[in-house]
Design brief:
189 residues, alpha+beta, eight-stranded mixed sheet, 31% strand, binds coenzyme A
Amino acid sequence: MTLPATFDTERLRFQQPSADDAPAVFANWATDSEVTRYLVWRPHQEVGTVTAYLASCQTGWDKGREFTWLLRERSSRQPIGAVAARPNGHRIEVGYVLGRRWWGQGYMTEALRRLIDECFRHESIHRVWAYCDCENPASARVMEKSGMIKEGKLHTWAVHPNVSSIPRDCWCYAITRDQYAQTPRPPSL
Ligand SMILES: CC(C)(COP(=O)(O)OP(=O)(O)OC[C@H]1O[C@@H](n2cnc3c(N)ncnc32)[C@H](O)[C@@H]1OP(=O)(O)O)[C@@H](O)C(=O)NCCC(=O)NCCS
């Protein structure tokens, strides 16, 4: 399967990353220890690491294993965050990150709703899921507002190295095709 390289919401443009975006990604979130607290990677120290990471995203696209987009604010055109979708048969796992300056304005809910719509356009996809650290309520709330359902606790699921080297409990959220079809929601762009 594949997903489109570019699509829009009211305020955001999903765009395949390019290495040229590295300075903005570095400045806007990749070095921020508050942003990365519950992520699986540590804050970056050098812009070159971000450049290499963004270049590696192309491999994920080429192999159809992981689709990563930068979220560009349409008004300012700058990248303010990123989302990723990892297909595995009939399931897709999603992940997301947003620069701290843009928190609390509904951006990620807007993005995740649109991403879920895009995933279910593929008839082969029956489940979109994600997990978050049990101590990351903002992320859990974004999933709830996007129509995902809390399925339970994944005990000792993921290492979040900025908090601890011990694997941590996480909440599993998902939305199935049937649940999606039954959820009344405004059409996204
Ligand atoms: C999680 C994250 C993506 C949220 O993005 P966002 O654009 O600010 O999210 P939204 O504005 O769409 O919604 C956030 C919701 O969480 C709520 N929230 C924020 N902090 C909260 C907290 N400490 N406790 C409870 N709810 C909280 C907000 O009130 C809002 O809900 P509401 O609309 O009902 O009031 C962003 O904070 C982020 O990038 N964090 C760091 C990276 C991360 O944790 N990614 C997810 C990994 S699983």
